[in-house]
Each structure stands twice: as structure tokens, then as C-alpha cells.
Write a structure and sequence with these properties.
two-stranded antiparallel ribbon; transmembrane; mainly alpha
């Protein structure tokens, strides 16, 4: 996604400051769905992410929200500017989700280490 920021070198793709704030805040709001449905589990002394049945619905919901936003505000905002706003929305959604995933991973990792430490060694 870091190369996506190059779009902002193109003047028409730069949203106004208020639009940037709006896009990032909506992204943070949408990230709550991802955070709530993303869980880790321990299997065979390894950490795995559980598959979420809600993921497909969230993805489709985001697509529908994007289409609705585009239809509603597409006439008021230029296409390039709208593309920049959707990029910022996605970035505003992914960053909090990744931070949350990292924090949750570290918690599960500590639980796994504690479990391994307290588990008796097998006798040969």
C-alpha cells in the first residue's frame, strides 16, 4: 500500500484536509468490524488465525458501502479525489486492525510461552 501514496503526487487526487480526516475516521470505524471478527488460536503449540465466517460479509459490505458512497457523493467530488479518499479509508482501516492484531498476537504468544513453561517434560 505504500506505493499507493504516490497517487497523491498527482494534484487532482489530493483530497482536502477535511476529506482526509473524514476518510480516515470512517476507515477507523470500519476497522472495528475487522478487529471484532479476527481471533487467534493455539493449535499444536503454534499460533494460528481463526477463519472468520463474517469476513466475506464484511468484504461485500465494504464494496456495497463504496458503491453507495460513490453514487451519493460521486457528483460532488471528482473521481481522482474520490479515489484518494477511498485509499485513505482503506489505510485508516488496515492500520488500527494491524495494531490490534499485533497486540492480540503478543498476548497469545505469552499464553503459549506460559503453557509451554508450565507443561511437564515428556519422559523418554
Amino acid at each position: 500500500m505504500s506505493t499507493g501514496f504516490l497517487m497523491f503526487l498527482y494534484e487532482p487526487a489530493r483530497p482536502a484536509f477535511l476529506q482526509v480526516i473524514e476518510a480516515v475516521l470512517v476507515g477507523i470505524l470500519f476497522s472495528i468490524l475487522l478487529i471484532k471478527t479476527s481471533k487467534f488460536e493455539i493449535r499444536n503449540q503454534q499460533i494460528y488465525m481463526k477463519r472468520s465466517k463474517a469476513f466475506a460479509f464484511i468484504l461485500i459490505g465494504l464494496l456495497l458501502a463504496r458503491i453507495i458512497f460513490k453514487l451519493v457523493i460521486g457528483d460532488a467530488i471528482h473521481v481522482e479525489e474520490l479515489a484518494g479518499m477511498f485509499f485513505l479509508l482503506a489505510y485508516g482501516m488496515i492500520i488500527p486492525w494491524r495494531i490490534s492484531m499485533y497486540i492480540n498476537y503478543r498476548k497469545i504468544e505469552k499464553e503459549l510461552e506460559e503453557h509451554i513453561r508450565t507443561q511437564p517434560l515428556p519422559m523418554s
